[in-house]
Here is the input.
Amino acid sequence: MSIPTSADLRPPSEIREAQLLRLAFLFLIAGTVVLSLGLGKATNLDWNRVLSPFLFLPVWGSAAWLIHRKLNLRQPGRDPLLLPLVLLLSGWGMILNWRLSFEYGARQTAWFVVSIALLLALVEAPPDLLWLRRYRLVWLSLGLLLTAATLIFGTNPSGGESRLWLGCCGMYMQPSEPLRLLLVAYLASYLAERISSSSRAQSAKLVPVMAPLVVVWVVAIALLAAQRDLGAGSLFLGLLALLLYIAFERWEVLALGAGLVVAGGLAGQVVSPVVQARLLDWLNPFSDPTGSSYQVLQSVIALAHGGLFGAGPGIGLPMYVPAVHTDFIYSALIEEWGLVGGIAVLGMYAVLVGRGLMAAARSRYVYSGLLAAGLSAALGLQAILILGGTLLVLPLTGVTLPFLSYGGSSLTTSFVAAGILILVSGERSSQRSLGASLDRVHAGLLLGWGVIALVLGWWVLVRGPEMLDRPENPRISTNLLPVLAVSALPPHIRERSLPER
Here is the structure.
């Protein structure tokens, strides 16, 4: 008779998570090796550029091992897919940022370490999340105060007009990122207190419940409008509508939310030149190919250049797209990893958000269920908004792509959201805490992923040859010479590059 080993005694979910983490690490190692070979070809063996991407691998491996062990002790019943998906997406994002710039890669790796520290702190915190629910007004007030502080003390690391950041000496944060998480926590706590566990919430009067929520939302939106950060404002409005719909199963909330988004866009077009320019670029992306629409045009040319399998990591020319490291990181991924890589990323987002919503549906408590649903919807909406802008399905909003885009505020906030989802996934119940509205939200997000995948295939396979033959394609004359730095672009284009988040 064989004696079982310690590995045999582990729960199946822990074994599965460990296997997925190993596969993710092998993928990142292979991707880094291929990237280094491509950089060696593109930079004539500039060893600093060739070897620097390997710096993040031991950091990633150590973080994966440590978090996995901690979770085995604290949350043995968690979803085994969440952590591998989060770490794989963030690791892929670091490969992309190291490819674009040594500075971007080094800073993103540093922010990855900070994100891991926050995730470990969450794991060690009380799992009931009462510390977040009990002090909801304190947390929300802190987020609003930090956002308001940018009106006085705000700065811009790139020297532009928008002053959305706080910080100095090379370290900056964008308060609107953590404000989104704190707003979801507040909304979940407020709504949970007004939902009876014994009767459905559709019978509740909607207006009295909505009034305080709308007040909080108006304050947040006013601050973001003063900062001209309308992309975050649209995301906040979408989250409010979705959480109210999940809680009360009233379709009127979604209709009202959609109407307010349209009204906000029309108002923004009148009062904000930035919003006006983005709407015009969306409606006619080829109207001014060397001016206002240069950014979106170069983005779709990068998609076309990627083709089915990509130009190869380190070989493409993604830096021809202004703000490629933030708003258009997906274009950089498609250019060098191809349609196959782009579909893989969409699949990972779909599974991550779907498993988060599954954790919300199975949660033991209404509060944690609403919190997980709001955070999952936030990740899904944010990804769909920026991917839709990249592919010209939607106007460009300027939000980041979670885990992939460059920026410390975005990365740390996304990791905290993912950590809460992991904690909630460990408190399963045999009865659902939320109704069928959650399934409809999941179906809507799946429809969004499907539309994005179809449009991506259309740009790459159908419109690709036409886009590559356009005279604005800089790859025709350069023949894949070393990448063009953003500083070498014309001044009126360079100013449109957005700084870190």
Notes: The chain is about 65% helix and 0% strand. The beta strands are 166-168, 171-173.
